[in-house]
Amino acid sequence: HRHGRHERPVHRSLKRRTAAPRPHRGEALSPMALLASVRAIRWPAVRFAARRQHLSTTSDLVLTPSTAACVPAVLKQLAASGALGGDSSAPGDSHKSEADLAKAVQQNAATKCMVVYDLDALRGAFSSARNAFPAHFVHALAIKSAPMSFVLKEAIQAGCGIEAASFGEAASAVEHGCLRQNVLFDSPAKTVAELRWALELGLTLNADNMFELSRIDTLIKERKGRATASIIGLRVNPIVDGGEISMFAVSSPDSKFGHPLHTAEARAEVIGAFRTYPWLSSLHAHVGSAGTSLQMLSKGIASLVDLANEVDRDLGGDARVTTLDIGGGLAASSSFAEYAQVLSGAAPDLFSNTRRRVFTEFGRAMTSKSGLVVTQVEYVKTPLTPHSPLRIATCHAGADLLLRECYNPQLYSHDISAYDVHGRPLDQVRAGTAPHHLAGPLCFAGDYIKKDVLLPPLEPGDVVVVHDTGANSLSLWSRHCSRLVPPVYGFSRQAKSAGDGSVGSGSAGDAQLGEVKVQVQLQKPPEPLERLLEFWR
């Protein structure tokens, strides 16, 4: 139930994946070894022919049953498999060794908090973006929103590129087999070593400023005629508005990103750069990330298209700007089809000029709605004062996993639903409601998922689900208080069941909702204690 809305969901299975062996401490891969490993990858060919050639006016994919409707059965399956809830202690545990007791703590911690992804919803987001835009658009997932391996694999399999804001993100994209020209390396602080690496691999580079362009020129000359497959562009700041949320405003005059187009002289500098550097062939703009309207996004992108056309005209009419990167910034509440329609009205040449490849960099819009944070209630305090109905429920997720929600509750709020440990909506098994403060496990006073949430009276062992948390949750994981990173599960709707629903080694469990069956699998195992301790060494 989501504030009064609950629908019966479905069942599934938990299949632990075998993790790839990790180097022992002191045996980290050298840069040359990493380069050799990524060179060995077989790169898929780019194919546009199968892509839709027209602007879709259909709405984004609607899944039945919805993600929220699947929650009770997901929880039931997790609980039945031992992956959710309960206390791993048993009679005689107090006589175990220290090592065995520590292992029991880790196993139990992994059942108290987890992230769950609706894989069908994730795939549907990729499909909706692809269907909403013409074939010369390539959608690069901004993996800062959800950098887990399975998300990258799904994105690449769906034909997406990867937008990388750091060397680590770019290396991850390459490791997962993303077509190298579809890896957009956008860091505003790229070092000479990083630029040299990116040019060698043929990644797409968006230079943040004129000085970075001069660095790239030096490195290209250093190659002594060896060509690079990199698409190289310049990020510009169209200066259209600050946006509603200042910390995410990237088009204000004082933005740290891009070459500002605040004067005619500044625009002339861009045209001059294209004259100076024959390898420069792309322009990039990212207008905003949150609190940015469709109209504001479109205005900034229209300015980018105008600049690209001006460059082409001033340099003799040839197609010098062969690629445009229009960034992301689309809110999770907006549809790709709606955005495409608004954008096509503001910048029609973006859609009609098929000689230019267009990159997008959606992050939150791609991943947010597909994710859930599931956490068990450990303690409940009540009443706090005489005649007060307020209850404080201490959970196992807080500012470690939901960092922005806890530190900026005025900007971030999510729907909350509550269940018993068997996955039954609490309003079906418990009478009445009460206001709750949902406290996290960290040792500071601001650690609250949400305050004054009206729910059926929570008790220890109950399960709280925070909806629409697929973006910027695990990717913002905080080491404050040194808690173990929780596991990640994924579920998908299945047409048929091949098993009896049991969970075991190599098996898959299913849950049924009407004619729909759903399967749950472990996507990312919980963090072992050794890795946490190693982090601080």
UniProtKB/TrEMBL annotation:
GO BP terms, alphabetized: lysine biosynthetic process via diaminopimelate
Classification via Pfam families: Orn_Arg_deC_N
GO molecular function, one term: diaminopimelate decarboxylase activity
All copies of domain Orn/DAP/Arg decarboxylase 2 N-terminal, residue ranges: 121-367
Cofactor names: pyridoxal 5'-phosphate
SUPFAM superfamilies referenced in this protein's UniProt entry, alphabetically: Alanine racemase C-terminal domain-like, PLP-binding barrel
Skewed-composition ranges (Basic residues): 1-23
Keyword Transmembrane (UniProt): no
Keywords assigned by UniProt, alphabetized: Pyridoxal phosphate
Region (Disordered): 1-28
Protein name: Orn/DAP/Arg decarboxylase 2 N-terminal domain-containing protein
Organism of origin: Chrysotila carterae (Marine alga)
